[in-house]
Write a structure and sequence with these properties.
about 290 residues; alpha/beta; Rossmann fold; 2 domains; 4-stranded antiparallel beta sheet; binds adenosine-5'-diphosphate; binds magnesium ion
Length: about 290
């Protein structure tokens, strides 16, 4: 399976560009879209889900043009929108039956499939309660279940882990990993840790553009050997910030521990090299292309 996207532009209006000349090829496995708010992640996902049309550009899934033939992907796709609204008066079971009807999923296996999905997202015990009474995390989980109803081959999850507690995140990761072998799975987040534990490949986005897409070690390679830690006097912090890209700071009484990225560490600051993480690379890439 492959989804080939070329020169995609989404111009919302004169001032607002969602995506500009965006090209990417997505294969089987889990791709994490990582970018700050406004980067264009939801715009890209809406266009792939055929909810929104591009201003320019092409999308081909296994050679089929899905801009002009959206049904080709709709039949085999599951989509969790970022602003997932639910029907507050339906219970989880009724809601999934309703979505199944919309998607044209039916037949003898439907009951079993709904039970299995409710189990998978840990909602079996609450399946008879109206969704309106659910917590944010529970609503998110019913959203995940509806995306999986039609046994999709292309899964698009826009900020799926928002509202999930750590245990629910682990569950989500397991659910997704089990599907990854023969599906294209695209997840978005603006939180690095959400993506790094789950994605095979990462696409870093900013300002409607793709900054890089690669497996995690390659993305991290951008900052290998450039990440350091040092202890600074609090009074020196300001001047230091002007010279280097600061990843984070931890105050310890009069001194501050600083993690930073540089090509040339200053010897007088007694810096220690540390191993680079996806977060370091993400901040480096999105900072450089401000
Ligand atoms: N319906 C819309 N009308 C106008 N501008 C929009 C609309 N949706 C998104 N945008 C703009 O497009 C850009 C990308 O937004 P979005 O795709 O939602 O980014 P992300 O999901 O990465 O936060 C932002 O500048 C946003 O303000
Ligand atoms: Mg978004």
């Amino acid at each position: 399976m492959s989804l080939v996207i070329k020169n995609l532009t989404k111009q919302y209006n004169k001032e607002k560009t969602g995506l500009s000349d965006y090209s990417i090829t997505i294969e089987k496995g889990i791709l994490g879209l990582l970018g700050p708010n406004g980067a264009g992640k939801s715009t890209l996902m809406k266009i792939i889900a055929t909810i929104s049309k591009p201003t320019r550009g092409t999308l081909f899934l296994d050679g089929q043009d899905i801009v002009n033939n959206p049904d080709y992907i709709r039949r085999i796709m599951g989509y969790l929108p970022q602003d997932f609204g639910v029907y507050p008066n339906l219970n989880a079971y009724e809601f999934l039956e309703y979505i199944a009807a919309l998607k044209g999923v039916g037949g003898a296996g439907l009951r079993k499939r709904i039970d299995m999905l409710l189990e998978g997202v840990n909602l079996t015990a609450d399946a008879k309660r109206p969704i309106g009474s659910y917590s944010g995390g529970m609503k998110q989980r019913i959203g995940i279940a509806q995306a999986l109803l039609n046994d999709p081959k292309v899964l698009i999850f826009d900020e799926p882990t928002v509202g999930l507690d750590p245990e629910e995140r682990v569950r989500f990761r397991q659910l997704i990993s089990d599907l990854a072998d023969d599906c294209i799975i695209i997840l978005s987040s603006h939180i690095v840790s959400d993506i790094e534990t789950i994605a095979d490949e990462v696409a870093i986005m900013k300002n409607g553009m793709l900054l890089d897409k690669a497996i995690q070690p390659e993305i991290i390679g951008h900052v290998d050997g450039k990440v350091f830690e040092t202890m600074l006097e609090n009074s020196d912090l300001h001047a230091f910030k002007a010279k280097h890209l600061i990843i984070n700071t931890t105050r310890q009484k009069e001194k501050t521990k600083v993690r930073y990225i540089t090509k040339t560490p200053e010897s007088e600051t007694a810096s220690t090299p540390v191993s680079a993480t996806l977060e370091d690379a993400y901040l480096f890439l999105t900072h450089n292309n401000a």
